[in-house]
Amino acid sequence: MIQSNNPLKAAQELHAMIGWTQPSDLTLEDIAGALGILVKDEPIKGSDGRILIKGDTAIITVNNTITNPGRRNFILGHEIGHFLLHKDATALFSDTPLTLSEWFKKGIHEKQANDFATELLMPAPLYVNKVEGKKLSINLIEDVSAYFQTSLLATFLRYISLGSFPVMVIYMEKGVVKWKFHSNDFPFTYLPINSNVPAWTVAGDYFTKGQLEPNPEKVDAIEWFAEDFEIKKKKDWKLWEQCYQVGESGLVSVLWTY
Fold first, then answer.
1. What are the two backbone dihedrals, phi and then psi, of residue 139, each rounded to the nearest 5 degrees?
2. Element (H, E) at 179
3. Hey, which residues does 168 pair with through a beta bridge?
4. Res 26: pLDDT
5. pLDDT reported for residue 100
6. What are the structural domains of the chain?
7. Of the four, 35, 112, 118, 157, which is 20 to 30 A from 98 by CA?
8. pTM for the model
9. Phi and psi for 114 in degrees, rounded to 5?
10. Residue 105: helix, strand or coil by DSSP?
């Protein structure tokens, strides 16, 4: 059984234990089964996923309204992370859309489960091999997402720490910025938490008009970063913006340089 309490090392140990070398080797259900975990798809009110742990076995229940395979894989990976890392902490974890999307949640167990799922689904060496030196585009992220069988959002988030080009991810609820996460080389950083989403952005259109564009759109950088010191030197800069809905009231916006 897995020995490490470190999420990344635990995922790597699991890969070695089951002989996993690439995403096509085993499904998440195969991995769960090898660990003595039963996976069910059933209605869950207010939750995306839930795990009930009893000794060395467990039952993972995934909300059957979730049809996106990549999102479902991340939920399964997240719950497997709870099983391997937190079985001594509590017998039941119930994860809402927020806990699964909020990579900066204060609860250490949720962050560890997310980190485990990320490394389990998209191991760093394989991910780097797919994106290194390639200009960031929606086509690249779609190709990498398809290879790892992950959601576009999870694939974008992984790119921030492992990719070669500048990117920022912003999480919003009800028109208000809740958190942001960006690569070290992203040119703009000043976006106050709890500030209102700027109107003339793709995210702004969503919150004011209910419209969610299916493809990336070009936006003026000054719309998002009007108060950033760097904008004085980059007033004419454009950014790509792609948005994804999270739960009933959340939205994620991904920005990258044009």
1. -65, -40
2. strand 176-182
3. 182, 255
4. 92
5. 47
6. 7-121 (1.10.10.2910), 166-257 (3.30.450)
7. 35
8. 0.84
9. -65, -45
10. coil
Residue 127 tokens read as: 């991910």
Helices (H), the chain: 7-18, 28-34, 69-86, 97-101, 108-121, 124-131, 138-148, 152-162, 202-209, 221-224
**Mean pLDDT, residues 73-89 taken together:** 87
Q: In terms of Cα–Cα distance, which of 204, 214, 212 is closest to 175?
A: 204
CA distance 34 to 15: 12
- Rounded to 10 degrees, the C-alpha dihedral 184/188/190/196 comes to -120
Q: CB pairs under 8 A, 24+ apart, for 191-200?
A: 191/224, 191/225, 191/228, 192/227, 197/172, 198/223, 198/224, 198/226
The two beta strands, 92-95 and 57-63, are unpaired
Does 8 have pLDDT greater than 90?
yes
Residues 6+ apart with CB under 8 A from 149: 23, 69, 70, 73, 121
Q: Which residues of 18-34 are buried (b: 16+ CB within 10 A; e: fewer)?
A: eebeebeebebeebbee
Q: What is the pLDDT of residues 157-179, one digit of tens each?
A: 899 989 989 999 998 999 999 98
Task: Give the H or E element holding residue 57.
Answer: strand 57-63
Residue indicated by tokens 């997402």: 145
- Residue 77's SS3 state is helix
Mean pLDDT (whole number) for 67-89: 88
Sign of CA dihedral 32, 129, 180, 175: negative
3-class DSSP state of 180: strand
